[in-house]
Amino acid sequence: MKLLHTADWHIGRRLHGFDLTAEQQNAYAQIEQIAQEEQVDGMIIAGDLYDRRLPAETSVAMVDSMLQQLNLTDQIPIYAISGNHDSATRLATGTPWFKATHLYLHTDLSQAFQPVELSDTQLFLCPYFEPFDAQQYFSDDSLQHLDQAFERVVVEMKQHFDPTKKHVLVAHFFAAGSSTTDSETNLTVGGLAAVPTDLLTDFDYVALGHLHGKEALQSPTIRYSGSPVKFSLSEANQEKGVWIVDTAYDPVRLTFKPITPIHDVQQVTSSFAELMNPDDNDTVDHEDYVGITLTDKQPIPNVMARLRDVFPRIVTLGRTDGFETQVRYHGESSKQIRQKSPMDLLDDFYEKVAKESLSPQQEKWAKAALKVAREEGNQA
Amino acid sequence: MKLLHTADWHIGRRLHGFDLTAEQQNAYAQIEQIAQEEQVDGMIIAGDLYDRRLPAETSVAMVDSMLQQLNLTDQIPIYAISGNHDSATRLATGTPWFKATHLYLHTDLSQAFQPVELSDTQLFLCPYFEPFDAQQYFSDDSLQHLDQAFERVVVEMKQHFDPTKKHVLVAHFFAAGSSTTDSETNLTVGGLAAVPTDLLTDFDYVALGHLHGKEALQSPTIRYSGSPVKFSLSEANQEKGVWIVDTAYDPVRLTFKPITPIHDVQQVTSSFAELMNPDDNDTVDHEDYVGITLTDKQPIPNVMARLRDVFPRIVTLGRTDGFETQVRYHGESSKQIRQKSPMDLLDDFYEKVAKESLSPQQEKWAKAALKVAREEGNQA
């Protein structure tokens, strides 16, 4: 069987306030196209279809339309699970009907053990669960940690193994040895929630969701697909895409199919002057979502607005070295400062910050403002 | 065809803070039983499955489970629409798959015109819509009011009429001539949203949702089923249940099948003494949800807590005549009052309100409290 492995669509997610709907639609369209070009026998979606347990109506309409297009129009079988960002209860709506067209969407641990039987492969769809769910399912309070619970889950799955077939597990968790990025929610701490990868060696392939970079695990048989869209600056250098998994080979054959964003996410470190006056060698796409780190050491007036004229999608703005010039009044005593007029103080301050004097127009505005302030002060 | 007509389930609704889950499950179980005993060919649910556009997970799980039971387990065809309390978008999830098992759930005006074809009947499922939706669908800005829009909708439906069949309309709105109760949200004002019943005469039966009492319309062919549960005190005297509609007869034959609540809702008008000391002729079920109107004229200390000992489900408490004794100090000048000690003032007040003196224990508590207050006053 040839399966497409994707995960972590996070429909409804924003990037530092920017709407990612167009990016997510674009990535989805490429996933659909890859599935058709590769003539896959099915698509695995390893959890986190939604970004929130309580998605907005627009997100609901988007996921509904994507699943309908893939499954009903394109007639691609879907093998999906709920992730930690999804509401298992909300995602479960309609699922008993979906099986008729080979859309499997498992949202409850109890559904993990009966595999979906394909011609040469058994697919175990294990939704995101917490130790408490395993305690309930197995009636065993000793399953306090996820690794214990998952070990028990695998034992139970293996009782359903057909030795003549390949065994594929679809799951959503943090596998030990994975490297994390900062756009996954830290729902669990330290080693507590990690599942050791050696628990997963009985499967011919483990299609994981949760971490957003495909490099998080390098095992030939255990893989994160990563998210199809970059959801944070820490994902700037990740290559996004999907895995094509061919279970006819032993070990399974993996091919990565990249997805091209409309606007990429990148980290830029440069001086303000270079950013504002790009030369011919400029490699930065100004339409990208950029995290800018300035190498300048002095304060720059109105820096964000001026940069936004050139880079409309700034997601963060920082400095490599902080400021060289701290804004202090060296050499003057507090008594001397108190004797200065408000206008002189403003003049001094502006020159320290902006490295230039107030223009005649600015001075006029400042005087008018100070006059109003003085009058209101007298009234009070 | 024999159809069961219900509406306005409002799953998730509360009655003055009381959870109605058990009542709603109980009513649902009776609806299921009636459908089975009557061997109906299908069930009409005329909108407002949910009480809110954004239902809680528990409500989602409840509606999911009810529809699965009726349609997948009992194999009863379902003909449903969204109402003004539902989110059409959220309710639409999964609907393209549902048709395979004859669960029709229309949530968009565009779905209203293609009837569901039964052997002897055409079913037009028209979800709740607003004039704006009709303007969009017909590309006609002149459809400013619901009556105009609905007239146009009916014209369009009639183009799909098969003259050899009966024609049943399922809709959710306020039909002119209906009497309202106070538990429907007043989304629309006055005549604006009312649809004249003469627009509905081309149908052999119109199964309406929105108003919660089956008596709201008395037409032999246009009916509200009412809600299966009493959702407000104004519904206390309504008989709840469902209609069985047999389209084999001309005019259609209607039979009302009542639903029995676990605890009824009723309005009780009585004196405090009679309520607290029921005699053998007492007809009030103390377990009911009761709106109590007291005939007493004097203040009654701690009245709600004392009544709740006898009636655990009080939803409102009022008075027929208000209070006879206004709490005022007649005959004393404000100077005289100011000369009284706090303890004397409290004594006077309590006697006015409670028609009895403070008990020795109450006096002790009051003195202790006044001492603390005095000490804190001295410190301040």
UniProtKB/TrEMBL annotation, chains A, B:
<protein>
    <recommendedName>
        <fullName>Nuclease SbcCD subunit D</fullName>
    </recommendedName>
</protein>
<dbReference type="InterPro" id="IPR004843">
    <property type="entry name" value="Calcineurin-like_PHP"/>
</dbReference>
<keyword id="KW-0540">Nuclease</keyword>
<dbReference type="Pfam" id="PF12320">
    <property type="entry name" value="SbcD_C"/>
</dbReference>
<dbReference type="InterPro" id="IPR041796">
    <property type="entry name" value="Mre11_N"/>
</dbReference>
<dbReference type="InterPro" id="IPR026843">
    <property type="entry name" value="SbcD_C"/>
</dbReference>
<dbReference type="Pfam" id="PF00149">
    <property type="entry name" value="Metallophos"/>
</dbReference>
<keyword id="KW-0235">DNA replication</keyword>
<comment type="subunit">
    <text>Heterodimer of SbcC and SbcD.</text>
</comment>
<keyword id="KW-0269">Exonuclease</keyword>
<comment type="function">
    <text>SbcCD cleaves DNA hairpin structures. These structures can inhibit DNA replication and are intermediates in certain DNA recombination reactions. The complex acts as a 3'-&gt;5' double strand exonuclease that can open hairpins. It also has a 5' single-strand endonuclease activity.</text>
</comment>
<feature type="domain" description="Calcineurin-like phosphoesterase">
    <location>
        <begin position="1"/>
        <end position="213"/>
    </location>
</feature>
<comment type="similarity">
    <text>Belongs to the SbcD family.</text>
</comment>
<dbReference type="InterPro" id="IPR029052">
    <property type="entry name" value="Metallo-depent_PP-like"/>
</dbReference>
<dbReference type="InterPro" id="IPR050535">
    <property type="entry name" value="DNA_Repair-Maintenance_Comp"/>
</dbReference>
<keyword id="KW-0378">Hydrolase</keyword>
<feature type="domain" description="Nuclease SbcCD subunit D C-terminal">
    <location>
        <begin position="263"/>
        <end position="353"/>
    </location>
</feature>
<keyword id="KW-0255">Endonuclease</keyword>
<dbReference type="GO" id="GO:0004527">
    <property type="term" value="F:exonuclease activity"/>
</dbReference>
<keyword id="KW-0233">DNA recombination</keyword>
<dbReference type="InterPro" id="IPR004593">
    <property type="entry name" value="SbcD"/>
</dbReference>
